[in-house]
Amino acid sequence: MTRRRVGPVLAVLVAGALGCSTATPPTPSASAIPVPDDPASTSVGPTARLAPGEPSSASLPPAAERGPRERPSVAAAPELAGAYRFVSAPDFLNQDVADLTADGRQQFVDKRTGEIANSTNADYDAALDHVIDEMASHGTDDVLVAGDLVEGRWGRDDARTGVFGPVRTQPQRLRAWRRAADAYYPAWRERFDDRGLTTYPALGDHEIGDNPWREKRRDAWIDFKRRHVPEFKRIYADHVLTGDDGRPRFADRPSGQARRTAYAVRLDADVLLVTLDVFERRGGDVRVSVDRAQLRWLRGVLRQARKDEVPWVMVQGHTPMTPKVRARNSSNLVYEKGARSDLWKAMVRGGVDVYLSGEVHDQTVHVRDGILQVSHGSLLYRGEASYVLGQATADRLVLENHQFRGEIGFEDRLWTTSRQGAPGRISYPDPSVVTGTLVASRTRSGGLRVDDAEGVLAPRD
Q: Which helix (H) or strand (E) holds 190?
């Protein structure tokens, strides 16, 4: 089946902002919430709701460029009869959330606060129930997560609590990493399993310790991360890509560095999902790229998809392939060489329709070389949880961005292995609102055409 470049795009951005009746405490600075180890590279958008002392609406940027919670709602997307449905929620959770006091575990005190060190509370349990229950309410069993399931800065203990054991030596750090993984990954997966939802995760930078991995100066923590990336990938795969029988959940996988972390699976008769591992250990560093074995495998998967005439081929990887996407509290990782890379060229030649990425905690759609890149995701702990609901039939694809408007408070904090934790108070009192839609169809020649788009899913140049 041949694919040609995308046709004309109708991109309609709706101006104006949707007011909210409740108030949220002023959003703290980036240093007050979990951030990458290189905070200078972090980009934080404007606060989502005004509080005393904050700028008036006249001084805020245009509505389309404000924070996710401030953006206007749009009309819901059309319902496709008999469509396959899925949810895509990259960077969910991008945070370590688990009850560290459960199952008779020994309890430790956070020396910074004097409180028992724990990574969840009743507020978080209620917030997660609210958000995941809504995901499950759309008649789908499948949730795609393009990386950053956890915070993952394990093998350190900034508060010196001893929760996961000592971290003075590299072997101790690795044991602490394994113990943390044994707590946080099962808690993440159980939330979906309990609702009958099947997760399809991709590896993110937080699953391998969060960037950077190259030392600017002597740093034992960064040296530890860089040395142990292959082991971190194995631990991740053991927890989220392995079935109860101990076998890999997905049979179609590459050889090489990504043999445990990349896979292809037919989600439906009309949809093939290819999940990439875009973090390659190369030249003494971690690069945002795929290794040769994974690229060869991808080309073979795409050739077979064309022979099988799969209507929709979707690829997910953690980082955007093209720059100039909206970003919130992100280090803005972008795939190496982007649209000039061998990976992008392989996707174009192989007839990929959609590339789903995370990392940036906001929503942007680009259309290039016939591929629809949907960069999306959010941070639950900032009160900005969101997800994309997808519908697919043999000849149509519909995407709909659902945005929550949560409330947070920093009166206390959750315990994490690194720095001061996420806000201790979080609430999601209301259902999500739709802030973007996109309707695409298959052309007679096999290409993809965007027929209508609105809000944050309207393609940008």
A: helix 170-193
Place of tokens 């953690």: 318
Q: What is the pLDDT of residues 311-332, one digit of tens each?
A: 999 999 999 998 899 999 999 9
Cα–Cα dist 437/454, whole Å = 5
Strands annotated E in 283-431: 285-288, 312-316, 354-357, 364-368, 371-375, 386-392, 396-403, 407-413, 423-427
Buried b (16+ CB within 10 A) or exposed e, 377-411: bbbbbbbbbbbbbbbbbeebbbbbbbbbbbbbebe
Q: What is d(CA 252, CA 302) in angstroms, rounded to the nearest whole number? A: 12
Report the distance separating Cα 367 and Cα 269, nearest Å: 25
What does the alpha-carbon distance between residue 390 and residue 408 come to, in Å, rounded to a whole number?
28
Query: What is the residue type of 434?
Result: V
Is-contact 136 80, C-beta < 8 A? no
Long-range contacts, stretch 56-65, CB < 8 angstroms, 24+ apart: 57/17, 62/15, 63/14, 63/15, 63/16, 63/17, 64/13, 64/14, 64/15, 64/456, 65/326
Contact 281, 225 (CB under 8 A): no
> Whose CA is closest to 90, among 213, 251, 229, 199?
199
Question: DSSP code of 48?
Answer: S
What DSSP state is assigned to residue 260? T
Q: Coil, strand or helix: which one is 183?
A: helix
Can you give the pLDDT at residue 58? 35
Phi-psi region of 338 (alpha: psi -120 to 50; beta: other; left: phi over 0): left
The DSSP secondary structure of 72-139, one letter per residue, reads: PP-PPPPPPTT-EEEEE-TTS--S--B-TT-TTPPP-B-TTTSSBP-B--HHHHHHHHHHHHHHHTTS
Closest listed residue to residue 241, CA positions, set 281, 185, 292, 293 = 185
Residue 18 has pLDDT above 60, yes or no: no
Q: Which residues pair with 199 in a beta bridge?
A: 143
Phi, psi dihedrals of residue 143, rounded to the nearest 5°: -125, 120
Residue 354 predicted with pLDDT over 70: yes
Return the SS3 of 214: coil
Residue 155 near residue 227 (C-beta atoms within 8 A): no
Q: How far is 333 from 320, CA to CA, in rounded Å?
A: 8
